[in-house]
Structure formats: structure tokens, C-alpha cells
Amino acid sequence: MKANNFGRIAIVDDDDALRDALAWLFSTRDHEVQAFASAELFLADYAPERFSCLILDVRMPGMSGTELFERLKEYAYTPPVVFLTGHGDVPMAVAALKGGAADFIEKPFSDNEIVDLVENCLRADTARRNQWQARHAVEIRLSTLTPREREVMKLILTGRLNKQIADDLSISMKTVEVHRARILEKMHVKTAMELAALLRDAQIDTNNPTE
User: Fold this and answer.
1) What angle, 0 to 180 degrees and rounded to 10, lies between the N-to-C axes of helices 147-157 and 162-169?
2) Cβ atoms of 126 and 52 closer than 8 Å
3) Residue 87 CB-density burial (10 A; 0-12 exposed, 13-18 middle, 19+ buried)
4) pTM beyond cutoff 0.85
5) Sequence-distant (≥ 6) Cβ neighbours of residue 39 within 8 angstroms
6) Per-residue DSSP letters for 143-178?
7) Same domain, 22 and 91
8) Are residues 58 and 64 in contact, defined by beta-carbon separation less than 8 angstroms?
9) Assigned domain for 69 exists
10) What is the pLDDT along the chain (211 residues), one digit of tens a residue?
11) Where is the Response regulatory domain (predicted)?
12) Residue 159: CATH number of its domain
């Protein structure tokens, strides 16, 4: 049984000895680990919700660690990625940082050094994943709105009154009232203020909530 609340760590490295050593190291620190000998094997078994930190070797036969990282960006959510590098791979790792990787560590490294680095990533993943899940839940609700409801919602969020919205859209005030009620119901809120707060907390632009 795990002694912490962190998620699973994935190790992707073609070096059998290093891969096994890292898997053993993290398991002795009560982390759940899964190791892969290649980027291709990892992708065949990958889903964003399965891992909370990815440790990728920069250079591997076939698909490299940096190529794998680019593939991972195609998913809706990418867990923190730590690159393992040799001295000559540092420029590649720095470029990956600019592209969104969490960090890199140069071989050889100490056990404490890599454990501390990965545990920081795991903590960051918890906060980021919670925010992503909250945003995703709101986006699902937004996707249920009809085009007209989206128009009305944008005007509601600017503070326009029902009569003003009716004039803006050349529809009756009764129709606006019906749209407003349906919008609040679909978004699981009771007032326009709650709607604005929901979008703000999910970090969705209230000026363009459906874009």
C-alpha cells in the first residue's frame, strides 16, 4: 500500500540498468512506478490520467524523449515531464524546458536529487490537475449551450439586463428569460454572479467564454 497521496510515476528509458534502478529507488520511497523500455511502448499504454510525473531519457533508439514530449502535448493534459540527460544533451533539455517541460537532471545524479525533483513535480501535478479537471467540467457544461444561448450568456456576463439583451438580439424579453433560465440550469448555477464566478475560477475568459 502506498504511504503517500502522490500519483504514479512513469520511467521511460532504454537503459535497463538505469530504468530498473530508478524504479527500485522510487518504490523504496513508497511511490507507485511503471517503467518502459521505449517511447513507443509507453505511448501504447498511455492515458493522461494514469501518470502524475514522467521521467524521460532524452536520447533513445526510435522515438527520442523530446519527440515523445511533443506527442504528449497533443493530449488534453500533460503531466510534469523530467528529462534525463547526458552532458551533450543539455541544450536539447533546455529547449524542452522552453517548450513546457518541468525540469531536467543531468547524469550522473544523486538519489536524493532526483527524488526531490520528482516529488516537487508530483505536488505541482496535483494542483495543476485539479485546475484542469475543474476547467474541463465547466467546458463540458458550456458545450451543451445552443448558439443562441451562448449569445445570450455573453451579454448576461457583460451585465446587460433582459430588456437590453432582447433589444440587442431583436428577440422578445420572454425569450431572453427562457434562455437565461436554461443557461443557468445547464451551467449548474442560480445567478449571473455565480455564473461569472464559475467561469473565473475555471480560468475561462468571461469575455469569450465559449471560444
Assistant:
1) 130
2) yes
3) exposed
4) no
5) 12, 56, 60, 62, 63, 64, 65, 67, 68, 71
6) HTS-HHHHHHHHHHHTT--HHHHHHHHT--HHHHHH
7) yes
8) yes
9) yes
10) 344 557 899 999 999 999 999 999 999 999 999 999 999 999 998 998 899 999 999 999 999 999 999 999 998 889 999 999 987 788 888 888 899 999 999 989 999 999 999 999 999 998 888 888 888 889 999 999 999 999 999 999 999 999 999 999 999 999 999 999 999 999 999 999 999 999 988 888 767 766 5
11) 8-122
12) 1.10.10.10
User: CB–CB of 62/42 below 8 Å?
Assistant: no
Query: Do 129 and 148 fall within a single domain?
Result: no
Query: Residue 169: inside a domain, yes or no?
Result: yes
Domain carrying residue 113: 9-136
